[in-house]
Amino acid sequence: MNDSLQRYADEHVRTVDTMSAVLLFAMFLFGSELGASGGPRPDAVGPTITLAAVSCAALLRQRSRPRTVVAVTAVAAAGASALGHLLTPLMLGPLMLALYRLAVLTGRGTARRCFFASVTLVIATATVVEPVHHPWPFRTVGPAAWLLLPVVAGNAVRLREAYLEAVQARAEYAERSREDEARHRVAEERMRIARELHDVVAHHLALAHAQAGTAAHLARTHPDHVRRILTELAGTTSSALREMKGTVALLRRPDDPGTPLAPSPGLAQLTELTRTFASTGLTVTVATEGKERPLSPGVGLTAYRIVQEALTNVSKHASSRSARVRLRYSYDRLTVTVTDDGAGAVGAAGGGDGANAAPAPGHGFGLDGTRRRARPTENDLQAEHSAGGGDGAGAMPVAADGFGLIGMRERARSVGGTLQAGHRVEGGFEVTTELPLYPSAPRPEERTP
Predict the structure, then answer these.
(1) Residue 29: inside a domain, yes or no?
(2) Hey, which residues does 419 pair with through a beta bridge?
(3) Quick one: 99 and 231 in the same domain?
(4) Residue 53 in domain
(5) Per-residue pLDDT tens digits for 85-100
(6) Spatial distance between the Cα atoms of 380 and 392, rounded to a whole number of angstroms
(7) How far apart are alpha carbons 397 and 402 in whole angstroms?
(8) What pLDDT is recorded for position 381?
(9) Do both 305 and 373 map to the same domain?
(10) Contacts of 101 (CB under 8 A, 6+ apart)
(11) Does residue 372 share a domain with residue 282?
(12) Are 50 and 181 in a shared domain?
């Protein structure tokens, strides 16, 4: 019922204001006939009607000029008091409505000043000029109390409207924030899936490429090695398909019965990971310092993928046949270091795109099935320097289409860790990452000027 009346008032403002003015005009005239019991009544019909008409006509502009309407109705109320009328709520009706509208449309300070000015004018006139001399409470306390009510009510309505607007604004902001957060989470999930696909494809296809090339080279001279390499190649491809299935399953519906339930890889699979590089001629040594501590699945997966990517880069680009992985546990952090002693070639950092890698000129295969790498040529070193290698002590050169080093840094930051990569002074390359034992808020990306 109240909502329907409010909608009607909002849609028919002019009609409501006119009806209010007519009703208050009638109440003004009726109130002019009232007075204190036993007291005299003023005989001024014409001026009373005039004051009522002027006061109520001014109410038609109460929404556009509330201050002017308050002034006009206050003067009319004071004039009625000067004629000897008792200031009852009927006589003060136009002024009360004007003060209410002023309190709703303006601030608290304006409503307070207009209230005090109106009360002072009305009470002073009733006290000094009134010819009938009604009892003093009717001339002072009564008008002040009746005029205070609309000011309080108007301020309450204004504050409620401001509160509702603030609530609506917060709801709209929250809705926009939820949409932005949803888009942000979708983008993060896409990046996570892209990193997983990149790491799986880079590692397994790089190994498969190296194993297939070695098998083709030794097919005539060492068939026994070929049989062993092909067996390992089957295991590599099976592992690649299994991890690809697990990664792509993230895009399926949660209730899809085909979704695998295998856990994500972690440092527990590090021995199996290093064993797969043996078929490519890369010997990996793992050393652990400190007391091993349990890792959260996110940190364990991050450490595993970083080691996987770093070893893949060594297998593809470095001239070294050995690499070292060092795991150092502290009270709250895990430091993972992957080093090799070989000289890197162009695109070492990009790493990861092993599916398209092919043996560079000068590379060969030993009789034991291992892959040999030639020393970098002068053109290679110049290309490395132009790609960002610098004097050999800086960051790993990044290929135009490589995302290996970028992906490793993003993985480290995603769990609140850091990653550094660069050439070693004594030769070779080193990748070092510090990860919290439990994931924390991602660290902001460091930018150099």
Answers:
(1) yes
(2) 433
(3) no
(4) yes
(5) 888 888 888 999 999 9
(6) 13
(7) 10
(8) 34
(9) yes
(10) 62, 63, 66, 69, 154
(11) yes
(12) no
pLDDT digits (tens, 9 = 90+) for 283-324: 889 999 988 888 888 888 888 889 988 888 887 777 778 899
Q: What percent of the chain has pLDDT over 90?
A: 14
- For 130-158, write each residue's pLDDT tens digit: 776 777 787 788 888 999 999 999 999 88
Q: Which residues of 311-327 are buried (b: 16+ CB within 10 A; e: fewer)?
A: bbbbbbbbbbbbbbbeb
CA 338 to chain centre: 35
Amino acid present at 258: G
Q: How confident is the model at residue 202 (pLDDT cuts 50, 70, 90)?
A: low
Per DSSP bridges, beta strands 418-423 and 371-372 are: unpaired
Phi, psi of 28, rounded to the nearest 5 degrees: -60, -45
Q: What is the dihedral of CA 328, 333, 334, 337, to 10 degrees?
A: -80
Written as six digits, the tokens of 239 are: 């592992």
Which residue range is the domain that position 245 belongs to? Answer: 177-436
In Å, how far are 151, 207, 229, 434 from 225, measured between CA atoms?
98, 16, 6, 39
Cα distances (Å, whole numbers) of residue 386 to 18, 189, 226, 266, 380:
84, 34, 40, 36, 10
What is the SS3 assignment for the chain?
A: CHHHHHHHHHHCHHHHHHHHHHHHHHHHHHHHCCCCCCCCCCCCHHHHHHHHHHHHHHHHHCCCCHHHHHHHHHHHHHHHHHCCCCCCCCCCHHHHHHHHHHHHHCCHHHHHHHHHHHHHHHHHHHHHCCCCCCCHHHHCHHHHHHHHHHHHHHHHHHHHHHHHHHHHHHHHHHHHHHHHHHHHHHHHHHHHHHHHHHHHHHHHHHHHHHHHHHHHHCCCCCHHHHHHHHHHHHHHHHHHHHHHHHHHHHHCCCCCCCCCCCCCCCHHHHHHHHHHHHHHCCEEEEEEECCCCCCCHHHHHHHHHHHHHHHHHHHHHCCCCEEEEEEEECCCEEEEEEEECCCCCCCCCCCCCHHHCCCCCCCEECCCCCEECCCCCHHHHHHHHHHHHCCCCCCCCCCCCCCHHHHHHHHHHHCCCEEEEEECCCCCEEEEEEEECCCCCCCCCCCCC
Tokens at 384, concatenated: 């490395």
The whole-angstrom separation of Cα 279 and Cα 232 is: 7
- CATH number of the domain where residue 219 is located: 3.30.565.10
Q: In this structure, what token pair is assigned to residue 260?
A: 């695998």
Residue among 205, 381, 200 nearest 280 (CA): 205
